[in-house]
Design goal:
The radius of gyration is 18 Å and the shape is globular. About 40% of the residues lie in helices and about 15% in strands. The protein has helices at about 5-15, 20-35, 50-55, 75, 95-105, 120-135, 145-150, 160-165, 190-210, 230-235, and strands at about 40-45, 65-70, 110-115, 135-140, 165-170, 175-180, 185-190. It is α/β, with parallel strands linked by helices. β6 and β7 (about 185-190) form a beta hairpin. The chain starts with a helix and ends in a 12-residue tail after the last helix. A 5-stranded parallel beta sheet has the order 2-1-3-4-5, with helices on both faces.
Length: about 250
């Protein structure tokens, strides 16, 4: 799409209030700076937060310079026995995030996007801390209402929101579910819906910043349109060995 037309669509698509949210603007700054520095956006989450990682890393309309980090990397790239993934408490064990970081071999200019509704699981906090200790900027997507309502689980006493340079708040309630049921409990999880919106708002704003600086955003085209697959492969060559694209 020509730059002028992109800007016109971009301006029309932005909600007047959403476009001026300081957290989205700050998040877009981080992403644009990373792309401009030829860095990779390293996205990590566990459980249902992986849906938002997939929303950010390797999808049509998204940035090519993105990489999905997963606990499964311990098996796929780290040589661990697949049985290790049967441990339901794996994400709470010390050292897991450090190993995932090592397997990713990120460059100094890479940005870490760490996603967790609660923001307190050990591997989540450990990943954010490890990234900061190695000089990376950290963008968090979490629920401030939930994280403020529960105690810290990491030995440091810190939560994801305490560590990140910028925090995107999903506005999900404590426990995530929105609609209360008679007799207790609730239904209708919210964080994925609002999280997807925040991710896409941030990517759109970052792309706008790159265009304003005279740079073309490296964006995926759907592989299901003619030439899309081949064009995407050409874009990926710039980040060879730094971004993983598997069948899953």
């Amino acid at each position: 799409m020509p730059r002028r037309r992109f800007r016109r669509h971009h301006e029309r698509a932005r909600h007047p209030q959403a476009a001026h949210r300081p957290d989205v603007a700050a998040a877009a700054d981080l992403v644009a700076e990373c792309v401009r520095a030829e860095g990779v956006v390293q996205a990590f989450g566990t459980g249902h937060s992986q849906a938002l990682v997939l929303e950010l890393a390797g999808r049509a309309g998204g940035l090519v310079s993105t990489n999905r980090l997963s606990i499964a990397d311990l098996v796929l790239y780290g040589g661990e026995d697949p049985a290790v993934l049967d441990d339901p408490l794996l994400e709470r064990r010390a050292g897991v995030a450090a190993r995932l970081y090592e397997l990713a071999a990120p460059h100094p200019q890479d940005l870490f996007v760490v996603i967790s509704n609660s923001g307190v699981n050990n591997v989540i906090v450990e990943m954010a801390l490890h990234a900061k200790e190695h000089g990376h900027r950290v963008l968090a997507l979490t629920s401030l209402a939930h994280t403020r309502a529960v105690p810290a689980a990491h030995p440091s006493g810190r939560k994801l929101a305490d560590i990140a340079d910028v925090v995107l708040d999903s506005a999900a309630p404590r426990g995530d579910s929105l609609l209360e049921l008679p007799g207790g409990g609730s239904v209708c999880a919210l964080s994925t819906l609002t999280g997807v919106m925040l991710v896409q708002m941030t990517v759109a704003e970052a792309a706008g910043r790159l265009l304003a600086a005279g740079e073309r955003p490296p964006v995926y085209v759907s592989a299901n349109v003619p030439g899309g697959f081949e064009g995407n492969l050409a874009l990926e060559k710039k980040y060879a060995g730094r971004i993983r694209r598997t069948a899953s």
